[in-house]
Amino acid sequence: MSTPSLLILAGDGIGPEVMAEVRRIIDWYGAKRDLPFDVSEGLVGGCSYDAHGTPLTDETMARAQEVDAVLLGAVGGPAYDNLDFSVKPERGLLRLRKEMDLYANLRPAQCFDALADFSSLKRDVVAGLDIMIVRELTSGIYFGEPRGIIQEGNERVGINTQRYTESEIERVARSAFELARRRGNKVCSMEKANVMESGVLWREVVQKIGDTEYPDVELSHMYADAGAMQLCRWPKQFDVIVTDNLFGDLLSDAAAMLTGSLGMLPSASLGAPMENGRPKALYEPVHGSAPDITGQGKANPIACILSFAMALRYSFDKGNEADRLEKAVEKVLADGLRTADLLGEDGATPVTTSEMGDAILAALDASL
Ligand code: NAD
User: Fold this and answer.
1) Which residue range is the domain that position 180 belongs to?
2) How far is CA 49 from the centre of its chain?
3) Distance (Å) from CA 153 to ligand 1 centroid
4) Residues in CB range of 354: below 8 A, 6 or more apart
5) Does the predicted TM-score (pTM) go above 0.85?
6) Does residue 108 share a domain with residue 161?
7) Ligand 1 touching residue 74 (CB < 6 A)
8) Are residues 282 and 303 in the same domain?
9) 130/252 same-domain check
C-alpha cells in the first residue's frame, strides 16, 4: 500500500501555531510507529489572499482533491474583515467543502474526565461522555430553492425551503451507520417527522438503509426537539446521532459545549469514497483563528491534535493509534497541564502551546 498522503493547510492566526504541534505528532508516528505520511503544505484563507490574491488557488484545490486527507488549522482575522465577500478567507474553506462534496460533518462531543467540571452540566452527566453527531452539510434548508425576501401586498416575506432527495439522505445515513460500526453500534436519527414532510421522508429512508444494509446496527428515531432535551438531560444514552443540516447545526453546537472549551473540539467533514475506498476528508478544529491570542503561545493545540486523531481513525483505519493519541491527551489533562483557555482550577499547571505539544509527545513515548 502506498504511503498515505496528507495536505496541511494551517491558515491564519493561531492556525499555524496549533498545526506546528500536529506536525510533530505526525513525525512521531512516522518515527516511532512505522506510520509515515507523505505530507504537503499549502495556503488557505488570508495568507493565500496575501500571496496570491485568492483565499484558495486552483493548484491547492486540485491537490486537496488528490490527497487521502486534508488537515486545516483556521482561517480569517481582522486584517481581512473588509475584503470583498468573494475573496474573504472563509471562501477558501467553503470552496474546499463544496468542491470536495463533503456532505457528512462529524462533530464529536467527548468529555475527558479531567475537564468534566468545565461543563455547565453536572459532572456525572458529562464525565466520560463520547458521542458523535453527524450533520448533513451540503443540502437542506441552507441551500433549498425557492429562497429570498419577496414583497407580498404591503409586507415582505422571508422564504427558505427545506429540500432533501432520497439519495442525499441515503448517503449521510450510510456515513452514520459506518461510523456506528466503529464505535458503539447505535444510531439515533433526528428530524421533525411530526410536522415536516422532509422529516417523514428522512425517517423512512434512514430506516430503509438501516434495515437493508446495516441490520446489525441498533437504529432509533427521535424528534429533534426531544433530542435537544435528551442531549442536556442524559447525553450518554447516545452513540451516533444523524440529522439534517439545520438541526445538526444547532444540536452539534449544543452537544459540543457539554464538554467545555472551544480549544478542545475537533471535527471532520467526509464525502464519497475515493477509488482507494477512503472517503474524501477534511479534518479541522471547530475554533477559528483566535486573533486575540495569536502569537502569544496561548493557543490550545488539542482541538487540532484530536482532529488528526479523527483522521487516523476515519481516513487511515488506525483506530488503535487514534486511541493511543486520545489517551495521551487524556493523560496530560489528568496530570493537570492546562493552556490558558482551560485554567481556573486550583493545582493546574499553566503551559504554552508548545509545552502542551511536548507533554503529549512524552505521553505518546510513554505509551510504547
Ligand atoms: P474563535 O474561535 O477564533 O475565538 C473565540 C474565542 O475562543 C477567542 O477568545 C479565542 O481566543 C478562543 N479560542 C479559540 N480557539 C482557541 C484555542 N485553540 N485555544 C485557546 N483559545 C481559543 O472565533 P472568533 O473570535 O469568532 O473568530 C475569529 C476569526 O476566526 C474570525 O475571522 C472568524 O471569521 C474566523 N473563524 C474561522 C473559523 C474556521 O477557520 N473554521 C471558524 C470560526 C471563526
Assistant:
1) 124-259
2) 24
3) 43
4) 20, 21, 297
5) yes
6) no
7) yes
8) yes
9) yes
Question: Which residue type occupies 332?
Answer: V
| DSSP label of 53 | S
Give the three cell numbers for residue 361.
509527545
pLDDT tens, position by position, 242-251: 999 999 999 9
Q: Is 45 in the pocket of ligand 1 (CB under 6 A)?
A: no
- Residue 341 and residue 284 share a domain: yes
pLDDT digits (tens, 9 = 90+) for 311-322: 999 999 999 999
d(CA 215, CA 226): 25
Nearest CA to ligand 1 atom 30: 288
**In this predicted structure, which of 93-97, 224-228, 343-347, 350-354 has the lowest mean pLDDT?**
343-347
Query: Grid coordinates 446496527 are at which residue?
Result: 217
Work out the end-to-end distance of the chain between its first and last CA atoms, rounded to an integer number of angstroms: 24
Yes or no: say if 13 and 353 are a contact pair by the CB < 8 Å rule.
Answer: no
Amino acid at 110: Q
Degrees, nearest 5: CA angle 111-112-118: 70
Catalytic residue positions, numbered: 142, 192, 225, 249, 253
Give the residue, by CA position, lying nearest to ligand 1 atom 42: 288
CATH number, residue 134: 3.40.718.10
111 CA distance to ligand 1 centroid (A)? Answer: 20
Residue 227, all three cell numbers: 433530542
346 and 227 share a domain?
A: no
Note if the bond before 266 is cis, omega within 30 degrees: no
Compute the CA torsion angle 122, 345, 322, 183 (nearest 10 deg): 0
